[in-house]
Design a protein that fits this description.
Radius of gyration of chain A: 19 Å
Distance between the termini of chain A: 42 Å
Order of helices and strands of chain B: HHHHHHHHHH
CATH topology of one domain in chain A: Rossmann fold
Structural class of chain B: mainly alpha
Oligomer: heterodimer
CATH class of one domain in chain A: Alpha Beta
Strand content of chain A: 15-25%
Strand content of chain B: under 5%
Distance between the termini of chain B: 34 Å
Bound molecules: adenosine-5'-triphosphate, magnesium ion
Number of strands of chain B: 0
Radius of gyration of chain B: 21 Å
Structural class of chain A: alpha/beta
Chain lengths: ~260, ~240
């Protein structure tokens, strides 16, 4: 479980996060949603300690992050998997080497064990045939999936994904969503996903935190998000014409 | 104020570089790769420059000794002294600040811009140890490159002497052995070690702590070159004053 209390973050005069409190439970996929520029990436990077923040308290299963020593932080982070919005693959390594990287750093597996494990996760993200490609030779969606494979290869306890399915076709996006949900269930990990994809929200949003203008505007689940009367949430959820139509039909049907 | 902050940050970087070392099996490969990129990859240009500048030093000296009272073997002596004391350790290091330095800054800077350094940190890896330490170790072999440069510089001088007909081979050989002070070699290699450390750390610093995007990577490479050369020249002055006078 990850708990966030009263988190403030600004860049100079720009106040990006203005007092956010929430918690993300073990074994559940939690989604942080909001418009582009609403501070989702900044939020997740604060959780990981990549950005210093002015005020607030972040704890991982009771361990307060800011009170850990540098080495304790690194030990905690070895249990974290993270998918960056821009993939952040190491461009001097092939995709398979990228995926094996956490294993090489943190396990005593033999080379063939590592290769087997990398094969296995690459298959799960539908990338079985891209082993020897360099990241620069892979498409954007392939890079994203390779980054997901790298994040889950060493069975993390905490998984963070910054827009894991942006840039993927709808079919692959669903595969990725399901994969994330499956491993969250299977290994009982704490998963936090940034997204503005309504499909993911419906599919895997066991908990949803809605950010707007630097504050938490709403919190709920994929069951409650379509029923809420909160104006800012409905504006966001029904911003696409398809969803507007569906809602219209739903309301007409009820009358 | 800003400079003070950067200097402090630089020394903190060096301290942090030694904390939580990366697994040896991984580090070994990183070091070998950096030796290949930074040292082996520079030998060609170092050899080329050393040989031809050695030749030019000889020609210039020979042409400027016009008085018949000065013995001809002084050409070899002057070539040896200028190559061992300054040309190989200092001049080549400035060239390496351009070649190796901008390579280090741009490769680490690109990793910063594309969040690869964040990715390392998030995995719990000491990114400074992972990225900078192997470069420092690899550049500890840099004195070998300078040793080769010294040899080739003197050889270049010899070639120029003979083909240009300035002195005889015997005179040149006598000259390069004249009044040899072994401490000059020690001085030159101590300098080289210190320059090697600067060559690894100053460009890494500029790459690691850069902010912005691809454009800033280019700017950081330029700034890093300027600062590395300035520091090499400054320390060269200080070390020479301390060790030779
Ligand atoms: N390093 C930075 N320095 C200054 N401002 C920043 C920095 N990173 C983000 N910001 C600002 O913080 C705000 C939130 O950015 P953030 O990247 O968190 O948005 P986001 O919700 O992830 O958007 P998207 O959905 O497009 O990824 C933006 O206004 C951005 O300009
Ligand atoms: Mg973002």
């Amino acid at each position: 479980m990850i708990e966030v209390k009263d988190l403030y973050k600004s860049f100079g005069d720009a106040h990006i996060l203005k007092g956010i409190s929430t918690s993300f439970e073990k074994g559940k996929t939690s989604l942080v949603i909001g418009q582009s520029g609403s501070g989702k990436t900044v939020f997740i990077k604060c959780l990981l300690g990549l950005f210093p923040y002015e005020k607030g308290c972040i704890s991982y299963d009771g361990q307060i992050f800011s009170e850990l020593s540098e080495n304790q932080k690194r030990d905690l982070r070895a249990k974290i998997g993270m998918v960056f919005q821009g993939s952040a693959l190491f461009d001097s390594m092939t995709i398979a080497e990228n995926v094996m990287f956490p294993l090489r750093m943190f396990t005593t597996m033999s080379k063939s064990e590592m290769e087997d494990r990398a094969d296995f996760v690459l298959k799960r993200v539908n990338l079985a045939d891209a082993h020897n490609k360099m990241p620069s030779e892979a498409s954007g969606g392939m890079q994203k999936r390779a980054a997901i494979a790298r994040a889950i290869v060493n069975n993390p306890k905490y998984l963070f994904c910054d827009e894991p399915n942006s840039g993927l076709d709808p079919k692959t996006a669903i595969v990725i969503d399901n994969l994330i949900q499956e491993i969250t269930d299977e290994y009982n990990i704490t998963t936090v996903i940034n997204s503005h994809d309504m499909n993911s929200v419906m599919e895997i949003g066991e908990k949803i935190v809605f950010l707007k203008d630097g504050v938490k505007a709403w919190e709920g689940t994929n069951k409650t998000i379509f029923k809420t009367d909160n104006q800012v949430v409905t504006d966001f959820v029904y911003s696409s014409n398809l969803f507007k139509k569906v809602r219209q039909m739903y309301i007409e049907e009820r009358q | 104020m800003n400079y003070l902050h950067s200097i402090g940050l630089y020394f903190l970087m060096i301290k942090e570089m030694f904390r939580k070392p990366t697994k040896w099996s991984v580090m070994k490969q990183l070091i070998l790769k950096d030796i290949d990129d930074l040292i082996i990859g520079s030998l060609g240009i170092v050899a080329f420059i050393a040989f031809f500048v050695g030749g030019v030093v000889t020609i210039q000296t020979a042409l400027n000794i016009t008085s018949p009272l000065i013995p001809k073997h002084l050409v070899g002596f002057a070539t040896r002294q200028s190559i061992i004391l300054e040309f190989a350790p200092t001049f080549i290091s400035i060239i390496m600040a351009g070649k190796v330095g901008s390579f280090i800054t741009s490769s680490i800077g690109t990793m910063r811009v594309t969040e690869q350094i964040d990715a390392l940190e998030v995995m719990g890896i000491n990114s400074l140890n992972y990225l900078v330490f192997p470069k420092v170790i690899a550049l500890m072999l840099y004195p070998f490159a300078i040793g080769i440069a010294m040899f080739l510089g003197i050889l270049g001088g010899l070639a120029a002497c003979i083909y240009g007909g300035f002195t005889t081979l015997e005179d040149y050989i006598v000259g390069i052995q004249l009044d040899f002070i072994p401490f000059h070699m020690t001085y030159a290699f101590i300098k080289t070690f210190i320059f090697a450390f600067l060559l690894a750390t100053i460009p890494s610093f500029h790459g690691y702590y850069m902010k912005g995007g691809a454009l800033e990577v280019g700017k950081a490479s330029t700034t890093s070159f300027v600062w590395t050369s300035v520091m090499i020249i400054l320390l060269n002055y200080i070390l020479t004053q301390m060790m030779l006078s």
